[in-house]
TrEMBL record:
Residues 8-76, 77-293 form the Phosphate acetyl/butaryl transferase domain. It comes from the Bacteria. This is Phosphate butyryltransferase. GO terms for molecular function: phosphate butyryltransferase activity. GO terms for biological process: butyrate metabolic process. Pfam families: PTA_PTB. Keywords: Acyltransferase, Transferase. InterPro entries: P_Ac_Bu_trans, Phos_Acetyltrans/Butyryltrans, Phosphate_butyryltransferase, PTA_PTB. It comes from Thermohalobacter berrensis. Belongs to the phosphate acetyltransferase and butyryltransferase family.
Length: 301
């Protein structure tokens, strides 16, 4: 049973090493993470980025850079394309976002020619380990799908359930959240939440239990749910939080990291290979956790 990132790292050690290509690796936290992943036997890395900067940063952190292949590239778009291409050519098992905007690396991932599309919807899944919540919490989608429609939300749930299953959460409870726990026709998030719950009951969304609408309080606090008189197996016990749109997800993600000091990881699912994707501002530990998560996902293919 996986209780936190220590368990994720241990499992990744058993399944690794895999090879990562890093898009714009000229970043101290990224180098710390790939160096640690290499030491732990989780992953090897091909570092795409500004070679001079990579070498200088490596010296600062006492990293033996000779153990890593470097592809010298200063341009963010070209660096992202080269890193993605290493995966599509089979030279790496997964690609990782380094010091580059999410939109730039995703454009390369979605490229018709060198990209990693499968025909399925791609979505971001963030994993959090919080002192204030008794189990791992998955949040989706904080980084990719801007304002998903009902069908897209269904696929976003399916992608998150796939990650949950890789983390040994057999029948994850999915809370579809909005601003309130009652259906209000003026609030599309609540209407979609009810429909997603119905789709799950009809067997159209499998491998999980979907409930909604919930407000965040009654999705993750049994006390709050009781106080509001909400009785539902998902209430207060969510494994996965589906947010209605990207701003809600991104703000929630950064609140958990910066205000609640959560440990975290992030990955894009639905592509031919995992795309390890954290915020540029996330810690080296978050990036290492994400590499470990990517290794688990790559081993599940
Ligand atoms: C998973 C968060 C994606 C994000 O917001 O990245 P940046 O902070 O690097 O823009």
């Amino acid at each position: 049973m996986i209780r936190g990132f220590k368990d994720v790292l241990n499992l990744a050690k058993k399944k690794g090493p895999k090879t990562i290509s890093v898009a714009m690796a000229n970043d101290k936290e990224v180098l710390l993470a790939v160096n640690e992943a290499k030491k732990l036997g989780i992953a090897d890395a091909i570092l795409v980025g500004d070679k001079d900067e990579i070498v200088n940063l490596a010296k600062e952190i006492d990293m033996d850079i000779d153990q890593f292949e470097i592809v010298d590239e200063k341009d963010l778009k070209e660096g992202s394309r080269k890193a993605v291409q290493l995966v599509s050519e089979g030279k790496a098992h997964m690609v990782m976002k380094g010091l580059v905007d999410t939109s730039i690396i995703l454009k390369a991932v979605l490229d018709e020619e060198i990209g990693l599309r499968t025909g399925k919807l791609l979505s971001h899944v963030a994993v959090f380990d919080l002192e204030t919540y008794e189990k791992i919490l998955l949040v989706t989608d904080a980084a990719m799908n801007i304002a998903p429609n009902l069908e897209q939300k269904k696929q976003i749930i399916e992608n998150a359930v796939y990650v949950a299953h890789s983390l040994d959460i057999e029948e994850p409870k999915v809370a579809v959240v909005g601003a309130k726990e009652k259906v209000n026709p003026k609030m599309p998030a609540t209407v979609d939440a009810q429909k997603l719950e119905e789709m799950n009951k009809k067997g159209e969304i499998k491998g999980c239990m979907v409930g909604g609408p919930f407000a965040l309080d009654n999705a993750i606090s049994k006390e709050a749910a009781k106080h509001k008189g909400i009785e539902h197996p998902v209430a207060g016990d969510a494994d996965i939080i589906l947010v209605p749109y990207i701003e809600a997800g991104n703000i929630f993600y950064k609140s958990l990291v910066f205000l609640a000091k959560a440990e975290n990881a992030g990955v894009i699912v639905g592509a031919k290979a995992p795309v390890i994707l954290t915020s540029r501002a996330d810690s080296d530990k978050a990036k290492l956790n994400s590499i470990a998560l990517g290794v688990l996902m790559a081993s599940n293919k």
